[in-house]
Amino acid sequence: MYDLREIEDSVRVWEIFCRKGASLTAYVGDDLCGIAFLNLQGYKKFEHQCLITIIVDQKYRNRGMGTKLLAELFLLAKNTFQMEMLHLEVYETNPAVNLYRRLGFTEFGIHKTFIKDNKQYIGKIFMEKAL
Questions:
Q1: Strand partners, 88
Q2: Nearest to residue 89, comparing CAs of 53, 119, 131?
Q3: What is the rounded CA–CA span in Å between residue 30 and residue 120?
Q4: 129, 131, 65, 124: which is closest to 100 by C-alpha?
Q5: Strand partners, 49
Q6: Exposure b/e, 86-109, CB count within 10 A at least 16 = b
Q7: For residue range 40-84, what is the model confidence (pLDDT) as tens digits?
Q8: Counting CB atoms within 10 angstroms of each CB, which of 28, 43, 61, 104 has the fewest?
Q9: What angle do CA 67, 73, 75 make, to 5 degrees?
């Protein structure tokens, strides 16, 4: 569902948050298998919360990599950035929804017609987790 431009945009954003110490990178040996980061807003009124992003290489999915990355991201958010709340956005067809629920995220909304792919709408679920 992602095209090359979307992936390149995600990498550029990840690089920005790397410089701020707000990202994690997972390797197995020399193989990059996942990234996760806090989308810091930079405004005092938003310091208590942020949107998170996680991307796990397809060959490392369902092997615990996402769980490990998110556990470390929760610690980074709470201990380094004093976050109180994290939120994420995920397509309703993404199997990772189950992982997010298992880790304590709850839904607070859905945009049912967020994208249109091959004449079919796919919704985006909004989820949050208190730390």
A1: 127
A2: 53
A3: 39
A4: 129
A5: 85
A6: bebebeeeeebbebbeeeebeeee
A7: 988 899 999 999 999 999 999 999 999 999 999 999 999 999 999
A8: 43
A9: 110
Q: Where are the domains of the chain?
A: 4-130
Question: What's the predicted TM-score (pTM) here?
Answer: 0.88
Strands 23-28 and 120-130: unpaired
Which CATH architecture fits 4-130?
3-Layer(aba) Sandwich (3.40)
Q: Which two tokens stand for residue 96?
A: 């990772």
Instruction: For residue 30, name the pLDDT band (cuts at 50, 70, 90).
Output: very high
Roughly how many angstroms between the first and final C-alpha of the chain, as a whole number?
31
